[in-house]
């Protein structure tokens, strides 16, 4: 099997459709901080203030075509918490998908009238207490057309991440038996060879060949997966100068992105916390600038020292600093002079030389804002200029891939902008040209046998 099949055009009416999504969202003060992954699974290129009537998406398609929709997803890293000795009940409660289900429910109730669909007054996204076993089966067996059941967090079961392809275990078989159609639409986890991403599709495809009762089952890619594969394939095909722009506060994610992508692009332009780490790695005093992830004690100076060796790195010579305590006393410094104690780097200055380099790029991969552009001081956003200048410097003809989060808002208005929901998956697809979930959709068992040798 050399190619994968797609959801579009498939008859799903009355069918139980198992959809693997990536709803691993972040919460802040009890609310979902960024719901891009959820909205993109409903309608591609979702815009909150504009109509979504003419846009396609996996969940929209399944609702319109009267499917019985079973959603499986993960949230957080519960197995790590259990390994730390935390109680199973507290871990289960902390990593429950119920808030995500309620958020999804609210979005669909708001959008359904635009699609010409009237849902029952008591319609809701139901949360199953488990993802496998009798509890899950009971919820699925009672479904009607257009019902949605969200299975419990997959990673509450060690078998999800502990799966060894291409072999099927009881966990895989239990998930596979829930459906008539399997849809992979969780691009953000497409690089993971887990039970739900690889095990289930491989098992179904093998059973289709062997068992008569399974011959009508389907394994397909959803709309979001299709979109992501297309946009990253386009980025690979475009010739000319390419640039990676990285900012934001996620040091672990961004240092890995630079480390894996710098050889595949012409230049790497950095801002945000990764800029701080590189400067610290170069021996420059960065004062009280961010060098650690929130909730972690790990200092990223050593990683910054390694990244500083990259030959195609573009670094600002000047930085904007402010008092860490209240973001007051804002001033611009030459970074080589160092940052005074009590101050932190809040933005960088993009000079004409850097702007010219940015403008040269035919493809730009943009992960994270350049400065602390979301920090408000006395009614203004004094640290947004680096991000704004980065955007203004981009050639209007450049193909720009934006990697979610705050940079989605910051990049609005760029003529050739596309939004990606994947971090590690995007990096692997761009550098390697394939993904584990993609090979599973193709039924390529040989790929996994090679990996396990």
**Which architecture of the largest domain per CATH?**
3-Layer(aba) Sandwich
Roughly how many Å is the radius of gyration?
23 Å
Terminal-residue CA separation: 21 Å
CATH class of the largest domain: Alpha Beta
Summed up, the domain count is 2
Point out poorly predicted stretches.
Answer: none
Number of DSSP strands? Answer: 18
Give the CATH H-level superfamily of the largest domain: Phosphoglycerate kinase, N-terminal domain
Proportion of beta-strand residues = 15-25%
Largest sheet report: 7 strands, parallel
- Helix tally equals 19
Helix content: 25-40%
Might you state the CATH topology name of the largest domain? Rossmann fold
Short synopsis of the structure:
The chain has 453 residues and is α/β, with parallel strands linked by helices.
Descriptive notes:
This protein is α/β, with parallel strands linked by helices. The protein has 2 domains: 5-228 and 434-451, Phosphoglycerate kinase, N-terminal domain (Rossmann fold, 3-Layer(aba) Sandwich); 238-421, Rossmann fold (3-Layer(aba) Sandwich), CATH 3.40.50. It contains 19 helices and 18 strands. The strands form 4 sheets. A 7-stranded parallel β-sheet has the order 1-9-8-2-5-7-6, sandwiched between helices. A 6-stranded parallel β-sheet has the order 12-11-10-16-17-18, with helices on both faces. It has a 3-stranded antiparallel β-sheet with strand order 14-13-15. Helix 11 runs parallel beside helix 17 (424-432) and helix 12 crosses helix 13. The longest helix has 16 residues, at 195-210. It starts with a strand and ends with a helix.
């Amino acid at each position: 099997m050399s190619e994968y099949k797609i959801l579009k055009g498939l008859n799903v009416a009355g069918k139980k459709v198992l959809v693997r999504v990536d709803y691993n969202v972040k919460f802040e003060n009890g609310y979902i901080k960024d719901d891009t992954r959820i909205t993109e699974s409903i309608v591609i290129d979702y815009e909150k203030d504009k109509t979504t009537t003419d846009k396609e998406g996996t969940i929209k398609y399944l609702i319109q075509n009267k499917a019985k929709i079973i959603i499986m997803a993960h949230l957080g890293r519960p197995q790590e918490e259990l390994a730390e000795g935390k109680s199973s009940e507290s871990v289960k409660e902390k990593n429950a998908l119920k808030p995500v289900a309620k958020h999804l429910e609210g979005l669909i109730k708001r959008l359904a009238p635009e699609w010409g669909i009237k849902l029952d007054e008591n319609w809701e996204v139901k949360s199953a207490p488990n993802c496998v076993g009798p509890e899950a089966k009971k919820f699925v067996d009672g479904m009607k057309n257009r019902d949605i059941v969200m299975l419990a967090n997959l990673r509450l079961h060690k078998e999800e991440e502990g799966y060894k392809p291409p072999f099927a275990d009881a966990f895989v078989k239990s998930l596979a038996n829930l459906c008539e159609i399997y849809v992979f639409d969780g691009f953000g986890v497409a690089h993971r060879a887990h039970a739900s991403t690889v095990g289930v599709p491989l098992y179904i495809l093998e059973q289709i060949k062997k068992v008569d009762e399974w011959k009508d089952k389907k394994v397909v890619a959803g709309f979001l997966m299709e979109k992501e594969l297309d946009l990253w394939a386009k980025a690979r095909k475009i010739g000319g100068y390419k640039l990676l722009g990285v900012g934001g506060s996620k040091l672990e994610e961004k240092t890995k992105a630079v480390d894996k992508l710098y050889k595949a692009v012409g230049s790497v332009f950095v801002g945000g916390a990764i800029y701080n780490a590189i400067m610290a790695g170069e021996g420059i005093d960065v004062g009280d600038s961010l060098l650690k992830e929130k909730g972690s004690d790990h200092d990223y100076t050593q990683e910054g020292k390694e990244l500083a060796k990259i030959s195609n790195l573009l670094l600002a010579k000047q930085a904007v600093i402010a008092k860490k305590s209240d973001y007051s006393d804002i001033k611009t410094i030459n970074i080589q002079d160092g940052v005074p104690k009590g101050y932190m780097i809040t933005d960088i200055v993009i000079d004409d030389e850097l702007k010219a380099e940015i403008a040269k790029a035919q493809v730009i991969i943009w992960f994270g804002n350049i400065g602390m552009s979301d920090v408000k001081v006395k009614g203004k956003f004094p640290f947004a200029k680096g991000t704004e200048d980065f955007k203004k410097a981009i050639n209007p003809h450049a193909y720009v891939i934006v990697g979610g989060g705050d940079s989605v808002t910051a990049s609005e208005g760029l003529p050739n902008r596309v939004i990606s929901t994947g971090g590690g998956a995007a990096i692997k697809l761009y550098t390697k040209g394939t993904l584990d979930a993609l090979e599973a959709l193709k039924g390529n068992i040989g790929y996994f046998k090679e990996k396990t040798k």
